[in-house]
Amino acid sequence: MDAFVSTESGLLKGINFATSSSHNCGDIDTAQRSKRIVRMCWLDEVLLCALADGFLTSYDVRTSRCRRLFAVPNGQDGLVKGLATMDNQKVITCVEAGEVSVWDTSGAQCQTFNANANVSRMRQSPHRQTMVATGGNENDLKVWDLESGGKPVFTARNVRCDHLSLRVPVWIRDIAFLDENSISTCTAYGQIRAYDIRSGRRRPVIDFSWDDCTSFTVMAAHGNNQVVAGCTRAKLGLFDIRGKS
């Protein structure tokens, strides 16, 4: 299989790009929307899944076996907003209420801290596994080093008021690490922003909007200078952020 996707009905599907085919991973008769997958990540060769009911499960791609692991507190109703692994031994979760937790694979909680309420997304840096970023509705970008005991190493500051001197609302929908020190965000209000956490500037160094989009939903890095972002109008854009302002 080349990729795995989850469906609203609760199914996990494996996709083969070469044959344009898909395969149901699990029993279709037991699939439930209340237990649909809301987040996925890899733990070695095991696919780790956060379900809408707050439980974590694992799917072994070699044996095609599913295993129920443990429940994430406050993770019910699809409220797990971030899932990552560290050194193939620890699991990192974040729920909408803001609780970021580190677990061992048996479900014992090793560390926890609060990233403030209304989190929409937590992302792990691919360049440094102990670094995660969070953001959400009226909860601006924060970058955390899990080795520093749950203290943010960077806290973003909102952009200046608009031309009517009105405060610009904050709602981060997704986050992408461009490199170890550069982070991009997309918002529910159609903005794409980039931050340099080394520069000492808390406001974004890049801030622009896409005319075809009023609300972004998802983002991914594409190299060090480009991001891919999708919006509620079912459009996907590739943006080169060099030279943007």
Automatic annotation (TrEMBL):
It comes from the Eukaryota. One of its GO terms (cellular component) is nucleolus. GO terms for biological process: ribosomal large subunit biogenesis. This is WD domain, G-beta repeat protein. It comes from Trichuris suis (pig whipworm).
